[in-house]
Structures are given as structure tokens and as C-alpha cells.
Amino acid sequence: LFAGPVDFVKGVVAMSGLPPADRLEVCFAGRSNVGKSSLINALTGRKNLARASNTPGRTQEINYFALGDSRYLVDLPGYGYAEAPVAIVAKWQALLKQYLQGRQTLRRAFVLIDTRHGVKEVDEEILSMLDRAAVTFQVVMTKADKVNRATREANIAQVMQALQKHPAAYPEIVVTSSEKGEGIETLRALVATLQ
Ligand code: GTP
Ligand code: MG
């Protein structure tokens, strides 16, 4: 699946702009700068497919990428960016809620959590939103190359603990590094085998 063509489809700012719901899709959610765009690039093996950047809040649209004609990968704008204007945040939260609740073909949300930080309060908001929308979500820990073994183990434990109160949580997490390639094959297999 990942060996085939991958294309940027479009950036969406309203529900009316979503492509036809004619295939299964997975989305990538997470705090601004957590590594969503980098992960999509690592998964697809295209360096600059999704624009990754040091500037938080870089991805402001819902970006659709097509894996052949059988799957969409959906890059969601990051949340928790302190300097984003209030009106923009409100508009984005409304769109996110509509998307999560209304997108029939959304099969799983991957929620990215920085391995250095674990689950933070801003993450809890989206996890609860996913519970309410009854969208199964799976945590993907990012930037694993940036932490030592002890921090890694401690933050994995913190995440597993936090997931216990979320009924929509998938009980297994994936630890990744887009930089070093850790966990990327595992995630590819997960995306490819979702039905
Ligand atoms: P927004 O679009 O702003 O929400 O950010 P994002 O979640 O898409 O993050 P992005 O992929 O743009 O990455 C943010 C920064 O983290 C960039 O400087 C990346 O190079 C860096 N980064 C992402 N993944 C990794 C990783 O696995 N390891 C390391 N060391 N750096 C990473
Ligand atoms: Mg991004």
C-alpha cells in the first residue's frame, strides 16, 4: 500500500470541502509541533509531502493525502498553540468536532504524544472529544530519538495510565521516531490492515 503512489489531495477549512467519503481514512492529531507532518512524510517515504516546520501552527488546514485509491491519510492542524488567536482556535475546534463526529469513513485517529512530555492537559481535551465522538484512537509517541531510556519508560507508563479513563482508546501504543525510523513499519502495517 505504501509502495504505491501517494498524492496530496487538498487542504480543507470547512466540512463542505471534504473529499467524497468513498474510502477508509485515518487522521493524525496532536499538539502543535508534536511531529504530525514529519510522521506522514516518514510513513509515505516522501520528504516534503506534508510540510514540516519549526514554526508551531504551520499546518492550519485539514490536509488530505491519498494512498493510491484505497486510503486517505489526514493531517490535522495542531492544537495547544498558545499564540493562536482565540477566534481561530474556536473556529478550528468547531471544525474538528464536526469532522470527528461526522466523518463516516474515519476509521481511526492516531493521537501523537511527544515522548519527552507524555499526555498533557491540552491532549486530554482531544482524547475526551474522541471518546464522545466514539472514534477509536491510538496513541503514537513521537520523537523517541530525543529521550533517554528512563524518560521513555516513565512517559510510556504515564500515557498508558492516562488512557485508562478513555473508553475510545486502543490499548496499544506505538513508539516512533520519524528521524530514525523507529516504529514506522509498525504504523504502516496498522494503517494498511485497518478494515
Ligand atoms: P504543526 O503542523 O505546527 O501542528 O506541527 P507538526 O505536528 O506537523 O510537527 P512537524 O512535523 O512540523 O515537526 C515539528 C518539528 O519537530 C520539526 O522541526 C521536525 O523536524 C521535528 N521532528 C518531528 N519528528 C521528529 C522526530 O521523530 N525526531 C526529531 N528529532 N525531530 C522531529
Ligand atoms: Mg504539521
TrEMBL record:
Signal peptide stretch:
none
UniProt xrefs under InterPro entries: G_ENGB_dom (IPR030393), GTP-bd (IPR006073), GTP-bd_ribosome_bio_YsxC (IPR019987), P-loop_NTPase (IPR027417)
CDD domains per the UniProt record, alphabetical = YihA_EngB
What cofactors does this protein use? Answer: Mg(2+)
Gene3D superfamilies found in the cross-reference section: P-loop containing nucleotide triphosphate hydrolases
**Spans traversing the lipid bilayer:** none
Describe the location of the EngB-type G domain by residue ranges: 22-195
Report the record's Gene Ontology biological process terms: division septum assembly
Organism's domain of life? Bacteria
One Gene Ontology molecular-function label: GTP binding
The UniProt entry's GO CC annotations, sorted and at most eight, read: cytosol
NAD listed as a keyword: no
Q: Which UniProt keywords apply?
A: Cell cycle, Cell division, GTP-binding, Magnesium, Metal-binding, Nucleotide-binding, Septation
Q: Which family does it belong to?
A: Belongs to the TRAFAC class TrmE-Era-EngA-EngB-Septin-like GTPase superfamily. EngB GTPase family.
Briefly, what is this protein's role? Answer: Necessary for normal cell division and for the maintenance of normal septation.
Record HAMAP family: GTPase_EngB
Q: Which NCBIfam families match?
A: GTPase_YsxC (TIGR03598)
Protein name listed in UniProt: Probable GTP-binding protein EngB
